[in-house]
Amino acid sequence: MNEDPKISLTDAYAVETPDDSIQLYKEWAETYDDDFIVATGYVGYLKAAQFYLLQENRPQGPVLDVGCGTGAVGIALRNGGVAVVDGIDISQAMLDQARQKIAADDAAVYRQLIQADLTGTIAIESNTYAGIVSAGTFTHGHLGPESLDELWRVAAPGAVCAIGINAAHFDSQGFAEKISNDVSNNVVSEPDINIVDSFTRDQDGIDEHSLQAMIVVCRVL
């Protein structure tokens, strides 16, 4: 493990544009698993995956891992019994790492990996996925609530969604209002919103609320 990571959670929270994200994760991809997941005690990805896996009567079909990074969520989903997982991320360097990940059945974690910027329209047909899972993508400097529209679009009716949103970002960027409007407009079901700790230990210099996530669980209507 890299004992003195050159890139940190503070750097990730400081990005402001899609180009910033591409550059950051290009530099971080090869050491991300050790520098971030291991070194910080990051468990937010496991909690998002677990909320999805615990939903009863989930429709069968492929699941989209949004902001898949190096593949942590995908591994949790596949090892939890999801047969087909696709990943999407803005960083090709992170996708290259995800492509190397192997599930417990000795097969590749991902069926396909898609490089795309979720601030715009993505090249996926509507009503494609039986599930949507995301952890760590809806956070400081990354994606705002408007990007949820693309997730709802590519999800098939009845699809289960478990979307992790940084708790401080949730409060400041209008996610509650967006989700409430989507419920009112019969886009998604009334959500179950759960606040969880994203890390097993404190992170120096980072507000406690920013170290938590709101995991929004709903179905696309």
Could you tell me how far the N terminus lies from the C terminus, measured between alpha carbons in angstroms?
Answer: 44 Å
Rg over C-alpha atoms, rounded to the nearest angstrom: 16 Å
Tell me the total number of β-strands. 7
What oligomeric assembly is this protein in? single chain
What does this structure look like?
The structure is a single chain. The chain has 221 residues and is α/β, with parallel strands linked by helices. Helices cover 33% and strands 22% of the residues. Strand 4, helix 7 and strand 5 (155-166) form a beta-alpha-beta unit. Helix 4 (44-53) runs parallel beside helix 5. The protein is globular, with a radius of gyration of 16 Å. Residues 1-5 have low confidence and may be disordered.
Keyword list:
single chain; 221 residues; alpha/beta; seven-stranded mixed β-sheet; globular; disordered N terminus
